[in-house]
Design goal:
With 472 residues, the chain is an all-alpha fold. Strands 1-2 form a two-stranded antiparallel sheet. The protein starts with a helix and ends in a 24-residue tail after the last helix.
Length: 472
């Protein structure tokens, strides 16, 4: 048995309804306990995204510390969400699991946005000062909130491997595949160029990453969304049929085979989670770096990121693929299917556009993924040599590995890492969720009292006040 076959079997064992069931149950639990925060507070999410980074923050503190704004934190997290999962991941889910996989991607996004709210709020609550900025994430709230150091270190290792190494190989693999499909470029050459540029950026630190992402994310997301939406509108008469196919296939009404339905659900959930990251424990790392007056603010903003990713960008890709009818072609999978589908609608410029778009999508994900690893390396050690080695492996070695490896190898490895990482984080947020529910009640109470910018101080949670480093 080869390594890839062994990884595939491990994936099936981990994902076969056990982890899928836990994800859905967590989403339902958090939706109920937060009274549907992801639906009831969408307006507040949008308002907060454009708010000043220092709303409710002491001005003396502002001048002493260099902060990441709410929008920059949102941009970095969306940079990792909006990427190959939206173009190649959606195509892979449909090619393997059928059109019904799209429904399960939607479901995991609707429920997962409540999970994303909980984990990102916890990231803010237990964040710590680090020189001129903040750091945080699951490793921090596991150590401070659960007082479980070994589990905190386990998570830190898992997320560093998953995002900083494995996921970066997926991004690189997709870029190289798109460039080869559109221009015939050698993956080795493309991989070398990607590695060099990524290394230059990651050695600049989180503020450079935030600045780059704040520029790239709006360009790539808006541009691709407009094009895909235009294609959908031009084919509006086909949408009822497309929706019918999605919903019939989602519940096995077309294939009528239990195993096929299982593949539909599994691929929809896996690709949905890879794309929006809700519950995976990644977004809290960058959510913690933002300067806000109340932890709930960044939780709401990160919940909005899940909607942005799956319900908008992923849906556009799915509709274009299903309208084209090419999802039944066995030879097409991954980014090649998306390129072929777009090409069938707008001609030869389609594959070229996707190649350029995936370059922006996936490259911004590479630098965002790198940061998640850096934040957790810093949690485990202050040794600068370890960080330097990690930077070389993340932006150099594994970007090159992805350029040269096969599509199946990089995606199977990514799925395995994702399952282990998500399981570890879900255990933590289930146990710590009670603090988030209280924070949300406090936020809503202040808003009902006509306080536009609610403020939180750690003394409001006296039983864990000693474990909270910020929020004086």
């Amino acid at each position: 048995m080869g390594i890839n076959e062994l990884i595939t079997q491990l994936n099936d064992a981990l994902w076969s309804y056990l982890l899928i069931g836990v994800l859905v149950l967590c989403g339902l639990w958090f939706t109920w306990k937060t009274k549907g925060v992801q639906f009831r507070m969408v307006g507040e999410m949008v308002r907060l995204l454009t708010d000043s980074a220092t709303s409710g923050i002491n001005k003396a503190d502002e001048t002493k510390h260099r902060h990441i704004s709410s929008f920059q934190a949102f941009a970095v997290s969306v940079a990792t969400r909006v990427g190959t999962g939206n173009l190649a991941g959606v195509a892979t889910a449909i090619a393997i699991g059928g059109p019904g996989a799209v429904f399960w991607m939607w479901l995991i996004a609707l429920l997962g946005s409540a999970t994303a709210f909980v984990e990102s709020t916890l990231g803010q609550l237990f964040k710590q000062r680090n020189n001129e900025s903040f750091v945080g994430g699951p490793a921090y709230y596991i150590q401070k909130g659960l007082h479980c150091k070994w589990m905190a270190y386990l998570f830190a290792v898992l997320i560093t491997i998953t995002f900083g190494l494995s996921y970066n190989s997926i991004q690189s693999n997709t870029i190289c595949g798109a460039m080869h499909e559109a221009f015939g470029w050698n993956p080795l050459v493309v991989g070398i160029i990607l590695s060099v540029v990524a290394l230059v950026i990651v050695f600049g630190g989180i503020h450079r990453i935030a600045n780059v992402s704040a520029v790239l994310v709006p360009i790539m997301a808006i541009g691709y969304f407009i094009l895909a939406l235009a294609i959908v509108l031009m084919n509006i008469e086909h949408i009822p049929h497309v929706l019918s196919v999605i919903f019939r296939d989602a519940f096995g009404l077309e294939q009528g085979v239990g195993g096929a339905l299982g593949a539909t659900i599994m691929n929809g959930v896996k690709r949905g989670l890879f794309s929006n990251e809700a519950g995976e424990g990644s977004a809290p790392n960058v959510a913690a770096t933002a300067t806000v007056s109340h932890p709930v603010k960044q939780g709401l903003i990160q919940a909005l990121g899940v909607f942005t990713d799956t319900l908008l960008v992923c849906s556009c890709t799915a509709f274009v693929i299903l309208i084209s009818g090419l999802y039944n072609v066995p030879e097409l999978n991954g980014i090649a299917l998306t390129q072929a589908a777009l090409g069938s609608e707008i001609g030869s410029v389609g594959p070229i556009f996707i190649a350029v778009a995936i370059l922006l999508f996936a490259f911004s994900s590479i630098i965002g993924n790198y940061y998640y690893g850096e934040a957790n390396i810093r949690f485990m050690t202050s040794n600068s040599t370890v960080l330097t080695v990690y930077r070389i492996f993340s932006a150099g070695v594994f970007v090159m590995f992805g350029a040269l490896a096969s599509l199946d190898v990089v995606w199977n490895l990514g799925d395995l890492c994702m399952a282990l990482l998500t399981a570890c984080n879900l255990v933590a947020i289930i146990k710590l969720g009670k603090y988030v529910f209280r924070l949300l009640d406090d936020y809503r109470t202040q808003k009902s009292n006509n306080i536009k910018e609610p403020v939180f101080r750690r003394k409001q949670l006296p039983e864990i006040e000693k474990d909270i480093d910020c929020w004086e």
